[in-house]
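Task 17 of the worksheet. Students: predict the tertiary structure of the chain below and write it out as structure tokens. Keep your answer in the requested format; marks are given for formatting as well as content.
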Amino acid sequence: MKKKSSFRYRTCVTFLLFFASVFLLFALKAGDSALYVLSAAVPGTILFLMLFPSRVFFLDRPSLAAALMLSGLGIMSVAGTASDFAISLGWRYLSALFFLFFGAAFFRVYRPGVPSAVVLTFFSLLVISFPLLWKSTVRITECGTVLLLLTVISFLSVRLCFPAVLSALAGITLFLAEHEVSAAFIAGISLVLLLWVSSGSGLWSLLSLAVSAALFIGYFSLFPIQSPDESYTSLLSAFPLLAPETPDFSLSSSNSLLLYLCRRFGSLFLLFSVLMLCIILFRGASLAVSARKSCHASIAFCAILLYGLRTLFVLFMLSDLLPFPAGDFPFLTDSFPQLCTDYFLLGLLSGISFRNESDLREDVRLSMLTH
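Model answer:
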């Protein structure tokens, strides 16, 4: 245990020194006071969260460390060329961290059942239909997807498969009405897999798969597949390993932070980002396997699905294998709603980790009493 803690300590110190030194070098080179603030704020925030007392608020440190590494890299990668944007991006990350604590607190008070399912159904459909009702350009599809899948989990926890499928199909229909095809695909795939894992009923999984396929066939018959925006169609092979693709490529010419970072730093940056996210996925899988209640395992599985499917869609998009635009890479985005969703899911994983640790401590206490 001592060696394990020592390794974590050295790893944390290494990351902190890395971020502090890189931001400081950028600040010395550009003479920008904002970068001096970042050189202290980014490592300070990481240190505060990694050392946050578990007695006050329990956070799952393995997944949190990987997420903070991705967030820090996102800010660091734009700081050298756009310090003002880096400051703005830093504030978005800092504000989104509130949803990390909110997600953990939500898990503690969440009680699966019909009342919570009805409430979640209302809010999920309301959030999904927000762009249709208010003609808003703010993209909050990830938030709606999370609420929709939590609705499905709540219904499945009391063995109500029909309302779970019905509410999910209603959300998928709204996504298609807003032309959010990638969100609809993610919700449809997640629905089928959650039905298979939670209920163990292949019939409901096949039924939901058939109806979802019918919805997509109907949508694509009305709106034929078009080539996505040219900024999304660069093959991974077009990215160099390390050097920038084009020296004059700027952030303003791209609407994807990951695309900008890959073109500026090469495919090695993408590989490292996928590696960091795999840490979160493996940690979520271990939490799902260790969970005592099927509902908790389903929530962890839901987080894995959302992180994993979004990552796959981004990789397919960059490989020119996806006929429609996808969302941004988890934790590497300038979209504040998506950052809030990413950290909210991380908070749910922290809540599951806390419950698993509590169950283990209770087992140890009971075993000591019996002996």
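Marker's comment: The chain is about 75% helix and 0% strand. The radius of gyration is 21 Å.
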